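Thread: sanity check for a docking pose with S-adenosylmethionine

Original post by kr_44:
Hi all, I'm comparing my docking run against an independent structure prediction. Below are the sequence and the ligand SMILES. Could someone generate the full complex and paste the structure tokens? I mainly care about where the ligand ends up relative to the chain.
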Amino acid sequence: MTDRTGAHRVTGAAHEAEPLFDDLPPNIDTDVFSVARLYDFLLGGKHNFAPDREFGRRLLAIEPNGRMILQQNRLWLARAMRVLLAAGVRQFLDLGSGIPTQHYVHELAHAVDPGAKVVYVDNDPPAVSHSNYILRDSPNAGAAHADMAESERVLAHPTVTSLIDFGQPVAITALAAWHFVEDKQDPKGVLAEYRRVLAPGSYLALTHATIDGATGDLVRDVQSQYQSVMKNPSPRTREQIADFFEGFDILDPGIVNLPAWRPDKPQDAENAQDVWFYGALGRLAA
Ligand SMILES: C[S@@+](CC[C@H](N)C(=O)[O-])C[C@H]1O[C@@H](n2cnc3c(N)ncnc32)[C@H](O)[C@@H]1O
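Reply from moderator J.T.:
Ran it for you. Here is the predicted complex with S-adenosylmethionine included:
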């Protein structure tokens, strides 16, 4: 339902009370679960609906640290973006972008250089339309609907070709996303296809769920929950994730639990093992 101001309000007994907000695209199905909106819910955002929140609460019952882990994912992005922007990178291709709110790539990049180019890629149509709605006043950013495991399609997408110049360095960022590419889709081979089009000075920034460490069993429980709503997510070991960086030099401190990656203060890295996501940044080898 749309009110006089054009803002969108969801009504009906099946829905919880919905916040009124004015940046929801028209014609999106709020009754269908979306992993992008789940992340928004866990991050405390307002771009989510009853099915997303219901699943989010089930996840939080299994992993009460869920919100904290996703906040750490955003904090990791901010630190990695500082490195990338300081290195002069001004083009970002973000794979599995979800809904880009709460200090995501374009906000961080444009805070430093409004001319920086950012393309978001997601295979979830509501997430893409939501993203393009949020970006409607940003000529240097756009969202593409594509399967990130199909590199040729992504690279040929008009939003990508119109905004990204592969003759110049590009940072490929994939935050909490590459674990949705299953082994049978050859995630390492796909990343190599992206790598082959990158110019020297390009980067790969990944955060990825892991089954390493004491939290391994917990992660498997979370994985089973996900299987009820989407295809098989694949948390991986450090070794498997290292393999994705073939052709890149992994910068210090390597592939580590998110809070342990270049913490702003040493105490920020305390209890890093509770965050069962690794983060790593690689620079394209010369
Ligand atoms: C968990 S969210 C992470 C969103 C964002 N990167 C972040 O860190 O907040 C993962 C996103 O990846 C998307 N995704 C999963 N598989 C994908 C695929 N094969 N191609 C493109 N996007 C995909 C989902 O739709 C979802 O929006």
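The domain at 66-284 is CATH 3.40.50.150 (Rossmann fold). Hope that helps with the comparison, let us know if your pose agrees.
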